[in-house]
Amino acid sequence: MIWEMRAAKGLGVAFATIALVVACGGGDNKGGIVKTATAPGGSKDPSKWPADDKSMCDWRNKPELEVSETIGPGSIRPNVRRVYRTFGEGDARHKVLACREIDTNLDGIKDVVRTFNQRGEAVHEEADRDYDGKVDVWLNFVDGRLAEEDVDSNHDGKPDIWKFYVNGQLQRIRRDRNFDGKPDVWEIYSKGRLERVGMDETYDGHVDRWDRDEQLKYEADSAERKAREQMGEIADAGASSSSSSSSSSSSSTSSSSSSDAGAPKGVKATTPKKK
Ligand SMILES: [Ca+2]
Ligand SMILES: [Ca+2]
Ligand SMILES: [Ca+2]
Q1: Of the ligands numbered here, which is closest to the C-alpha atom of 154?
Q2: What ranges make up the beta strands (E) of 128-191?
């Protein structure tokens, strides 16, 4: 039994889950039945797997393609199909993986398919991650790297979350909150972190409001300030009770509240520009 180590990260997680369930399934489970939904027409009993596994690779009636069926971890029947295309002539003749599809929940129905280009790089993937028989995740790759991930979150068969990646890093997310097929939230990321959000509250396809992420920025700043204060306290007070943690910061503000100056202390008054 050969297992391909190049399996997608997502698939790896799926298999890890299955392996765990199978390993723990000594009690009520019969013969390592996997505790996931069963796609329509499928069965968790391998002897009752349907003749039609709902193949998502395009290989039928194509004799020029080579098809291999293998048994993946936890399965007792072949649940992984690879379709190869041959290139070149004579000594240069070689086969390249063109499509791979897997029945990850072992119900006899294929639920994830990935296609590859002539260089063996991933091009596209589709998956039914909740095993209801409908594709809910679509992945597009550029130069073998994930560039776009579309997700159907309301099970209507159409994507409503679109995630875009550049050089493997999340750049943008578009969300369709009213499920009309059109995005109404635009999230812009910088270095993997949410930077600003555009909201279309009227669902006319135009951003009504851009929210810079002031809240996140504020939280990051105050966390840093708190950490610096705590470092100071540890340095000069050693191990003391947590109730005194606010004393150092409150002492400076309490004096400012009693003062009759306009601006609180610690805030620099802006001097008017001289002409
Ligand atoms: Ca399946
Ligand atoms: Ca699905
Ligand atoms: Ca919408």
Answers
A1: 2
A2: 137-142, 145-151, 161-166, 169-175, 185-190
Radius of gyration of the chain (CA): 28
Q: What's the pTM?
A: 0.65
From the CA of 183, the nearest ligand is 3
Q: Which regions of the chain does DSSP assign to beta strands (E)?
A: 66-70, 80-87, 94-102, 112-116, 122-127, 137-142, 145-151, 161-166, 169-175, 185-190, 193-199, 209-212
- Distances in whole angstroms, Cα of residue 112 to Cα of each of 11, 61, 125, 166, 255: 8, 21, 7, 24, 65
Q: Which two tokens stand for residue 75?
A: 């399965």
Ligand 1 centre distance from Cα of residue 23 (Å):
19
Which ligand places an atom closest to the C-alpha of 130?
2
Q: Give the pLDDT confidence of 52-69 residue by residue, as tens digits.
A: 999 999 999 999 999 999
Q: How far is the CA of 203 from the centre of ligand 3 (A)?
A: 6
Q: Which ligand is nearest to the CA of 181?
A: 3
Angle, vertex CA 100, rays to CA 1 and CA 103, nearest 5? 70
Tokens 């306290």 locate to: 233
212 C-alpha to center of ligand 2: Å? 34
Residues 26-43: pLDDT tens digits? 334 444 444 789 999 999
Which of 80-84, 137-141, 216-220, 264-268 is predicted least confidently? 264-268
